[in-house]
Amino acid sequence: MREAELKHCRLAMMAAAGILWNELIGPFPGMPTDKSQMDVFWQVYEEKPSLIGGGLFFIAILEIIGGIATTEGRKSGDRAPGDFGFDPLKLGGKDSSLPVKEVRNGRLAMFAAAGMILQGVTTHKGVLENLGDALS
Questions:
Q1: Secondary structure, 3-state, 88-125
Q2: Most distant CA pair in the chain: distance in Å?
Q3: What is the pTM for the complete model shown?
Q4: What gap in Å lies between CA 51 and CA 54, rounded to an integer?
């Protein structure tokens, strides 16, 4: 259960950062530009459906590999949830409160990403444009 929560927390943190990145910096070259990322998704789906299909295939492969790694890790009981031994900057062992902070920030990111997606779908404006409208 904790493993799934950590996975979704990490995914939500990347999603929230990715939505803001696209609004502030812009999309990859060759991709449609629009303020609402949700509208861009459907434009890409109409113009280049193979990109969406390829992305879904890539995600499926990652899920299969992640499922195998999670199952094997649980069998042995040698590792903590979400710990796959990848820590190139050696940040994991310095502070014992980091796992709790990661989950709390991840839970907040889940709400943030859901809010950004919902705003984009309902208003067809970007997140920062909606924020500007709310503050003015």
A1: CCCCCCCCCCHHHHHHHHHHHHHHHHHHHHHHHHHHCC
A2: 56
A3: 0.75
A4: 5
- Any idea what the Cα angle at residue 85 is, between residues 54 and 88, rounded to 5°? 85
CA distance 119 to 33: 17
DSSP one-letter code for 81: T
Nearest alpha carbon to residue 20 among 108, 117, 106: 117
Residue 128 token pair: 């920062």
Residues 6+ positions from 39 with CB-CB distance below 8 Å? 120, 124
Read off the pLDDT of residues 56-78 as tens digits, 9 standing for 90 and up. 999 999 888 877 777 776 677 66
The pair of three-digit structure tokens given for residue 23, joined into one six-digit string = 């609004």
Q: How many CB atoms lie within 10 A of CB 7?
A: 16
Residue 5, token pair as written in the block:
């929560």
In whole angstroms, what is the distance from residue 103 CA to residue 94 CA? 17
Q: Specify the higher pLDDT residue, 81 or 59.
A: 59
Is-contact 13 109, C-beta < 8 A?
yes
